[in-house]
Amino acid sequence: MFSDISPAMVAVVAAVTCVAAAVQGAAGFGAALILAPVLALLIDDSKVITTFLVGMGLVINLIILLRVKLKADVKKVLLMTLLSVFGILAGTYTLHRINAAEPRERSPS
């Protein structure tokens, strides 16, 4: 699986990941916007790209959370976390239902 990964590819991904992490840390968003296109050019498997982006996002956001935890309003953070879980579940269910539906043929315009 990893036999086709060259040292140059690892170096490019590492460099772009560092830039993406810096942008994420400074602006609060943007890591996936920077990294996803580069990974898509280098890696054909979308599951690998998604897993990498989610893992990187979790690590970056956990680091940021640990650095600002003393300044955060814990009640608000817990409420936002709980509500986001419901939003994730609703969005996942909706996407699953849309993908499970029969594809419709487009009529020629």
Summarize the structure.
The chain has four helices and no strands.
Approximate helicity band = over 70%
Structural class: mainly alpha
- Mean pLDDT across residues: 82
Number of strands: 0
Rg of Cα set: 18 Å
Portion of residues in beta strands equals under 5%
- Count of helix runs: 4
- Count of the domains: 2
The biggest beta sheet reads: none
Poorly predicted sequence stretches spanning 5 or more consecutive residues? none
Query: Could you spell the SSE succession in H and E letters?
Result: HHHH
Q: Which term fits the overall shape?
A: flat
Descriptive keywords:
109 residues, flat, 2 domains, mainly alpha
Q: Can you characterise this structure?
A:
This protein is mainly alpha-helical. The chain folds into two domains: 1-71, no CATH class; 72-102. Helices cover 76% and strands 0% of the residues. The chain is built from four helices and no strands. It is flat, with a radius of gyration of 18 Å.
